[in-house]
Amino acid sequence: MDFTLKIWRQEGPQEQGRMETYPVTGITGDMSFLEMMDVLNDQLIRDGQDPVAFDHDCREGICGMCSMFINGEAHGPNRKTTTCQLHMRSFKDGETIYIEPWRAAAFPVVKDLAVDRSAFDRIIQSGGYVSVNSSGNPLDANAIPVPKADADDAFNAATCIGCGACVATCKNASAMLFVSAKVSQFALLPQGQPERMSRVQRMVDQMDKEGFGNCTNTGACEVECPKGISLDNIARMNRDYLKSKVTGE
Amino acid sequence: MAQNGILQSSLAKKYAMAVTGLFLCLFLVGHLAGNLQLLTAASDGGRQFNEYAKFMTTFPAVKVLSYLTYFSVLFHLVDGVVLSLQNRKARPVRYAMERASTNAGWSSRNMMLLGTIVLVFLVTHMQNFWWQMHFGEVAMIDYDGESVKDLYTVVAAFFNPEMNRWALPAIGLYLLGQFALGFHLWHGFSSGFQSVGLRHPRYTNIISCLGKAFSVLVPVLFSAIVVFMYITQA
Ligand code: SF4
Ligand code: FES
Prior knowledge:
Shape of chain A: elongated
Number of domains of chain B: 1
Order of helices and strands of chain B: HHHHHEEHHH
CATH class of chain B: Mainly Alpha
Number of helices of chain A: 9
Distance between the termini of chain A: 59 Å
Radius of gyration of chain A: 20 Å
Distance between the termini of chain B: 49 Å
Shape of chain B: elongated
Largest sheet of chain A: 5 strands, mixed
CATH superfamily of the largest domain in chain A: Alpha-helical ferredoxin
Number of strands of chain A: 7
CATH superfamily of chain B: Fumarate reductase/succinate dehydrogenase, transmembrane subunit
Strand content of chain B: under 5%
CATH class of the largest domain in chain A: Mainly Alpha
Number of helices of chain B: 8
Oligomer: heterodimer
CATH topology of the largest domain in chain A: Fumarate Reductase Iron-sulfur Protein, Chain B, domain 2
Order of helices and strands of chain A: EEHEEEEEHHHHHHHH
Number of domains of chain A: 2
CATH topology of chain B: 3 helical TM bundles of succinate and fumarate reductases
Bound molecules: iron/sulfur cluster, FE2/S2 (inorganic) cluster
Strand order of the largest sheet of chain A: 2-1-5-3-4
CATH architecture of chain B: Up-down Bundle
CATH architecture of the largest domain in chain A: Orthogonal Bundle
């Protein structure tokens, strides 16, 4: 398969960026999107040009590093799929493919397609943890009864890989889906209760400080999230934050 | 205003949008109930409608509701503008290629545009009727010794092509306003519930169906009344 790629090139954070066009040839349908990028970069290096910088790590859909806005959608056209799990058979031979970095004031471009997502780390640092250390005794967890439904919801929230596709796809560059998943994974479990109210306040306040936009409930994040994180989490966070402000805890 | 105190956080601003928006939905129900009387008003020369209009503009408890409504409109507007400006700032560089329609509904992505059309409609609408009723020259009519403003004649004349040569364009703007209102509500109604965290597997579907029905029914009925006034007088 052959493709025409339109890729955002930007030398550094302060540099002016632009879209550039590159042809790639000899791609097979079984190659992942990142492997296709590897082919392109190989070609660029051979031609003595600067290869395209992009983030990736596990290449098996679990780390959240790969972050490309492909043909107008975060992680490309397939649902519940990260860029590394996207295969070229999902595209038509000869297609033109737009590849852009996540666009958000809170995710500044480092170079080309790589953006700085440390805003997410700072949100986690502000409250995405439980302060009390476990005793290391494995009986601990089993001694506390947790309803199955709550355990499932908490687990589902915890599957968020922090990729930032929700921010990238949201028309307001809002981080609500990510933050609400990280709030919910504790809010649903007994161990998360003591800090539940202060946690939601600190994490929401940090989210606002980072310059993410405001949620308008379009629901685009839920559709584009590779892990299928639900809007239920956003509602839970809205509820908890309201309660924390009303009760002044 | 929205930068400090309770409205400092993004969520607080969303709560304010939701509460004022949902309150305005209640206002719409009340207003619609009032307007529906126009369908039968010709039979008694508008007496029932005029007496109702007097009640609505003078009864103290209703006055309180009116001021709450004015306040909600203004707050919803200012808060909406602040949120929109912040949202723009959150994405300074736009995508060269975006397929937003694949993951979100049209109305949810165009609330600002729809709200602006509703606002333009609202300004002209208030100028035409609210201003007349409160500050304009409205003929008085006598019902059993009680003197009442004859708002019905003002409304009837406004939608009468023989008395108002702008009747047809005015109806056009009215219908456009209702159209925009419908789409604004299509997203806004259920969005308000989500913003304050009212979401539950058992009730969310009901709320969303209710919102859709509301967003169709209310503008259609408002429009039907106006079209009826026009056709019966044309
Ligand atoms: S909520 Fe989904 S889209 Fe957002 S960071 Fe987590 S996994 Fe990625
Ligand atoms: S590279 Fe780890 S999720 Fe794609």
